[in-house]
Amino acid sequence: RRQRQMCIRDRDKVVPVCQSEILHEALTKAGVESTLNISKGGGHFGGGSESAHEFQDNLIAFFDKHLKKRQ
């Protein structure tokens, strides 16, 4: 089973938010479980501390859901 996690920031000038939204929609249409998290603030290589914490929390939640051994 395939899963995709995309964590982006709304001020990213390298990969615009709209490109991630298009990819997320295409993956979902193709039956791939896709999660798109858009954090406020920060660009492609980081941002403020709030953005960094939200970014990290989203990644941890994804890893816990898909990589942690089931009890």
Fold and architecture overview:
Helix content is 45%, strand content 20%. The protein has 71 residues and is of the alpha+beta class. It has helices at residues 17-29, 49-67, and strands at 3-9, 33-39. The protein has a two-stranded parallel sheet with strand order 1-2. It starts with a strand and ends with a helix. Strand 1, helix 1 (17-29) and strand 2 (33-39) form a beta-alpha-beta unit. The chain is built from two helices and two strands. It is flat and about 35 Å long.
Structural class based on helices, strands and sheet pairing: alpha+beta
Roughly what fraction of the amino acids lie in strands? 15-25%
**What is the overall shape?**
flat
- How much helicity do the residues have? 40-55%
Uncertain spans: none
Question: Taking Cα atoms only, what radius of gyration do you get, to the nearest Å?
Answer: 13 Å
Query: Major beta sheet, specifics?
Result: 2 strands, parallel
> What's the N-to-C terminus distance?
19 Å
Average pLDDT works out at 82
Number of helices: 2
| Strand arrangement across the biggest beta sheet | 1-2
Number of strands: 2
H and E string: EHEH
